[in-house]
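Run log // design_07
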C-alpha cells in the first residue's frame, strides 16, 4: 500500500468514526435518524435500502438505512424490528459511499396522509417509506425548553406495507366535572401497542413500549401549542387516561410552584409508531360545558376501552 493509499484509508476511517460519534445515540434501535435536519431528501433502491440526505450540525449527511418493515406485536420472545443504519452513507457497510451511483426506484408518495410529514415515496411493490419531523422532547406542563435538545425536532424514518397504527382518544370531564380528561387506546392491526419495561420516569425501556405525547392549545400556559404531558400506553391493553389538573413541576424543572390546569381550546396527541411504522397523531376540540348526557355515554365508552385495564377507571 502506497503512502497515498494509506492516507486515503485513514481519512475514510476518520469520516466513519466522526459519523458514529455525531449520530443520535438511539439511531441503531429506533426510527430516529437525526435532529434538526434541513433540506431533507429520501431515495430507495431495488434492494430496499433508503438513502436519507440532510443538513445538520453544519454539514451535509448521507445516511443509509435498511432491513426493517412494519412491526411485531408485543412479545417477550423477539426483539422489535428496527433499521440498520450507516451514517457514512454506505462506507461503514460496503467501504464505499453509495450516493453518486444510487439508483432511486421509489415513486411519488401515494400512501395515507401523515402528520408531521417531511418526505415520502412508494415502491413498485406497494410499500411506503416516509420521513416525519416533530418536537418529541419538549418539557411537560407547558414549561418552555431550557436545554437545546428539548427544543430539537426528531427526523424519523418509517417503512410499511400494512394499515397504520391507530391512536384513538376521547375527551370528557373528571373530578366534579371541572377538569378536562383524556382517555384512549393505541393499537396496531387490532392488537394493543405496549411494552414490558419502562424507566422510573415512564420512558420505554424496550423496543415495544410507546409514549403518548399530549399538547394543549391556547391554555393557561400561553398562546399556541404547549406540551401538556407524555405517558405510557399500558402493558397488556394499550389503554391510557390523563386528567388536566394542576400539577407540581417535575424534579429538575426550573419552574416553581403549582402549574395551572392545562385546559385548552384543542388537544393533540402523537405517538411514535411501533416498530418502523409511521408516527400517528390525533386532534380534537375541548369538550366544552359539562353535559350529563354526554358524560354518561362517554363513561360507557371508557369502560369498553379500558376492558380489563385496572390502571384507569371511568371518571
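design_07 sequence
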Amino acid at each position: 500500500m502506497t503512502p497515498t493509499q494509506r492516507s486515503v484509508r485513514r481519512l475514510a476511517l476518520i469520516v466513519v468514526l466522526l459519523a458514529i460519534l455525531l449520530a443520535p445515540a438511539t439511531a441503531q434501535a429506533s426510527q430516529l435518524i437525526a435532529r434538526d435536519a434541513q433540506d431533507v431528501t429520501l431515495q430507495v433502491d431495488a434492494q430496499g435500502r433508503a438513502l436519507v440526505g440532510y443538513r445538520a450540525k453544519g454539514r451535509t449527511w448521507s445516511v443509509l438505512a435498511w432491513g426493517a418493515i412494519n412491526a411485531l406485536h408485543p412479545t417477550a420472545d423477539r426483539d422489535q424490528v428496527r433499521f440498520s443504519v450507516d451514517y457514512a452513507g454506505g462506507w461503514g457497510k460496503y467501504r464505499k459511499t453509495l450516493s453518486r451511483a444510487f439508483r432511486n426506484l421509489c415513486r411519488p408518495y401515494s400512501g395515507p396522509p401523515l402528520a408531521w410529514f417531511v418526505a415520502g415515496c412508494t415502491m413498485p411493490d406497494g410499500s411506503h417509506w416516509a420521513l416525519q419531523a416533530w418536537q418529541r422532547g419538549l418539557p411537560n406542563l407547558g414549561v418552555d425548553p431550557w436545554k437545546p435538545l428539548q427544543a430539537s425536532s426528531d427526523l424519523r424514518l418509517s417503512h410499511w406495507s400494512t394499515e397504520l397504527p391507530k391512536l384513538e382518544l376521547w375527551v370528557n370531564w373528571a373530578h366534579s366535572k371541572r377538569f378536562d380528561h383524556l382517555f384512549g387506546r393505541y393499537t396496531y392491526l387490532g392488537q394493543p401497542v405496549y411494552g414490558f419495561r419502562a424507566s422510573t420516569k415512564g420512558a420505554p425501556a424496550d423496543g415495544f413500549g410507546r409514549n403518548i405525547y399530549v399538547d394543549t392549545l391556547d391554555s393557561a400556559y400561553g398562546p399556541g401549542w404547549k406540551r401538556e404531558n407524555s405517558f405510557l400506553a399500558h402493558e397488556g391493553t394499550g389503554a391510557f387516561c390523563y386528567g388536566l389538573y394542576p400539577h407540581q413541576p417535575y424534579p429538575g424543572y426550573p419552574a416553581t410552584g403549582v402549574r395551572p390546569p392545562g385546559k385548552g381550546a384543542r388537544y393533540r396527541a402523537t405517538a411514535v409508531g411501533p416498530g418502523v411504522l409511521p408516527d400517528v397523531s390525533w386532534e380534537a376540540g375541548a369538550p366544552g360545558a359539562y353535559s350529563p348526557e354526554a358524560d354518561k355515554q362517554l363513561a360507557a365508552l371508557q369502560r369498553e376501552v379500558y376492558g380489563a385495564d385496572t390502571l384507569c377507571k371511568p371518571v
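Residues 166-306 form a domain with the Immunoglobulin-like fold (CATH 2.60.40).
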